[in-house]
Structures are given as C-alpha cells and as structure tokens.
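Bench log. Compound arrived from synthesis this morning; before running ITC I wanted a structural hypothesis for how FE2/S2 (inorganic) cluster sits in the protein. Inputs:
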Amino acid sequence: MTTGEVTGHRVAAAADLPPGGSRAYAVGDMQVAVFRLRSGELRATDAVCPHAGGPLADGQTDPTKVVCPLHSYAFSLADGSCHNGDYAVRTYTVREEAGEIVVECG
Ligand code: FES
C-alpha cells in the first residue's frame, strides 16, 4: 500500500449503530469511534482521546461534537478540533454502503 492511500474498511453492519449510538471499532491497528447522530448521519473520529486515553465512543454527543467521558474535553465531529484544550483527534470519512458501515482511513 502506498503511504497516504485511503482505503474503505467495512467495520460493522449498519444495524449495529442505531440513531444516537456510538461504538469503537478496530481498523487495522487503529481504533476508530463511529457515531450515528440522531439524524441518522454518521461521523468517525479516533477512538482514543489524545488527552489521557479516554474512550470517545462512550462520550456524550450532540450534532457537532463528542465530549470525552473522562475529563469533558469536547471534540468537533466535523474537523476533530478541541473546543476547550490543545488537543485534536483525526476525523474520517464514514458512509453506509450495502448495509454496512465503511470507514475510510489508511
Ligand atoms: S482523557 Fe479525554 S479529556 Fe482527559
């Protein structure tokens, strides 16, 4: 694989994530948190909080952000920026395809 190449990874059946649901999935040697907003849209970020390793898939979400359950840092679901600290997570393109959730990452 070429460095920087983006690949679609099937991580779960679409039914695995109901509206308002979130889970962490292993994608290669990475952990990616996938969120299904109440609108039905999907978002994906790194699953591990860069502050001290909190599980972001267990955080509270609204349509724009996820709040880490450990120390309440809030990360944008659009670009991964932190609303209240000097940290950032990566975000990933995620889509539903043929009944499965597909995350695009290297
Ligand atoms: S581990 Fe996430 S805010 Fe501290």
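What the model suggests: The longest strand covers residues 7-13. The chain has one domain: 7-105.
ITC booked for Thursday regardless.
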